[in-house]
Every structure is written in structure tokens, then in C-alpha cells.
From TrEMBL:
Pfam families: FdhD-NarQ. This is Sulfur carrier protein FdhD. It comes from Aeromonas eucrenophila. Keywords: Cytoplasm, Molybdenum cofactor biosynthesis. The gene is fdhD. The active site is at C98 (cysteine persulfide intermediate). Its main location: cytoplasm. InterPro entries: Cytidine_deaminase-like (IPR016193), FdhD (IPR003786). It is found in: Cytoplasm.
């Protein structure tokens, strides 16, 4: 029974979730469940994260068409990228049933990446009131309370852009896709969601120097961040920032530095 002093939210106040079919050069590649905003950014960020394209210049066209359950993204990519994708698909198909497919799947989930050039992490004062500063950027989250956000910050810690999605991976894909379309990329990214290993891979692959998380990272996420020289920083709700970094901190009062394993 609903209490007299409360009300049920209207349907239009709940977070949107739709099926997005991604076609590459006329061939279906994947169907993702996502929030239907910034789908052009999502297409570029998703294909970049999958290693199908190397940048925005590899995408020739994106057509977005509504469908019964969501949207269809018809993406046209460079022929050289399509050839690499087809070769990868043939390699995975040929391994089926021989005991190698499990190895291929693990290698695909945790691919080897090029380590970043070590950078000194941002100063603690650039992270002051970060949670409060992020809140106004989460416009849809304020209505539904069920959206993750990924944000781009400049060198002084000012927020420049935000992308939201029901999926934390999708939110980061959208932000990375948007950044790939800009003439100048931000090297500091922030996420409001749980920080798992896959988000570390996306940040390293993009070339970010720093990844700030409002939630605690996993052990594997920390190990991968340190392996690839990504400055991973956890900003708790009340305590001082926690730096998981090879480079050390900026020696400001209140910072906590977690040494490499």
C-alpha cells in the first residue's frame, strides 16, 4: 500500500532504456541497451573501445533511425578498419571447439595495452567539492536517480563536459566518443560509477592521464591502472582523496597515497 504522503513517479520521470542496434557497413555487429542520448558519440566511443576504429577519422557516416524498440545506428567505417574486424571475427570463429576459444575470450576481455607516459597526478585542491560540482551536470540523473555519468575535466579540475547513461560503460563510451570528435582532448576523466577493470582499459586506450572515481575501485582496476601508469584517484564522500599511483601525490595535506603492489 502506498503511504498517503508519497506518490509514485510518472513514467516520463523514469530513466529511458532502449535497444540500440549497431550496424557496421551494413552488417549487424551488436545490440546494446542504452539511454537514447548522444548516440553519435556513443557509436564512435563504442567502436573505439572495441578496437574497430582508431579515431573519429575512421568513421565516414552515422545514420540514426528510430525502430520499434529503440534505434538503429548504421555506421560506415573505413575499409581498412572493416578488413581488420573481419579478420578478427574469422580468427575467433576458427578457434571454436579446440580449447583455444577461452584463451581468446580472456585476451579480448583484457587486451594488452601500451603503457601511458607517467604524469604527476592532479593536486588535491583541484578536486575540492568535486561531487557537488558534478551534480548540476547530471541533469537527467536528478529526475530519475538512476543514471551514471562520465565527465571531462581540464588541468585545473574544471568540468568541461558530461555524458549520462543507464550503463556505466556506455556513459564513458559516450564521453570518449565526444572527446574523439574534438580538436583537443581532455586528459582527466571522472566517473560516478563503480570503477572496474573495463573502465581502466577504456581510459588507458583513450590516452587519459588521470581517472577520478567517486566509488571505490576493484583490486584488479588498481593493478591495471598502476601497470599502465594511469593515475587512479578515488574521491570518497567525506574522506580525503585516495591516490593509486606510481607517481606519488602532490604532497598536500590530507591526501592518501596507496603504493603499488
Amino acid at each position: 500500500m502506498v503511504p498517503l504522503n508519497s506518490r509514485l513517479p510518472r513514467l516520463d520521470e523514469l530513466v529511458e532504456e532502449v535497444a540500440v542496434s549497431i550496424n557496421i557497413n551494413g552488417i549487424n555487429h551488436a545490440v546494446m541497451m542504452t539511454t537514447p542520448d548522444d548516440l553519435d558519440d556513443f557509436a564512435i566511443g563504442f567502436l573505439f573501445g572495441e578496437g574497430i576504429i582508431q579515431g573519429n577519422h575512421d568513421v565516414h557516416d552515422i545514420q540514426i533511425t528510430p525502430s520499434e524498440y529503440g534505434f538503429v545506428l548504421d555506421v560506415t567505417i573505413a575499409n581498412r578498419c572493416l578488413a581488420v574486424l573481419n579478420q578478427r571475427k574469422r580468427r575467433l570463429t576458427g578457434a571454436t571447439g579446440c580449447g583455444i576459444c577461452g584463451v581468446e575470450a580472456i585476451e579480448h576481455a583484457l587486451p594488452a595495452l601500451t603503457p601511458l607516459s607517467p604524469q604527476r597526478p592532479p593536486k588535491a585542491d583541484s578536486l575540492l567539492n568535486l561531487r557537488e560540482r558534478i551534480a548540476p551536470w547530471q541533469r537527467k540523473a536528478r529526475l530519475s536517480g538512476a543514471l551514471h555519468a562520465a565527465l571531462a575535466l581540464d588541468e585545473s579540475g574544471e568540468i568541461l563536459a558530461c555524458r549520462e547513461d543507464i550503463g556505466r560503460h556506455n556513459a564513458l563510451d559516450k564521453l570518449i566518443g565526444m572527446q574523439l570528435r574534438q580538436p583537443r582532448r581532455c586528459t582527466t576523466l571522472a566517473i560516478t560509477s563503480r570503477c572496474g577493470s573495463e573502465l581502466i582499459h577504456k581510459a588507458v586506450q583513450f590516452g587519459a592521464a588521470h581517472l577520478i572515481s567517486l566509488a571505490s575501485p576493484s583490486q584488479l582496476a588498481v593493478r591495471l591502472a598502476q601497470k599502465y601508469h594511469l593515475n587512479l584517484i578515488h574521491v570518497p564522500r567525506f574522506d580525503a582523496p585516495v591516490y593509486y599511483s606510481h607517481a606519488g601525490t602532490s604532497d598536500q595535506i590530507g591526501e592518501r597515497n596507496v603504493q603499488p603492489y
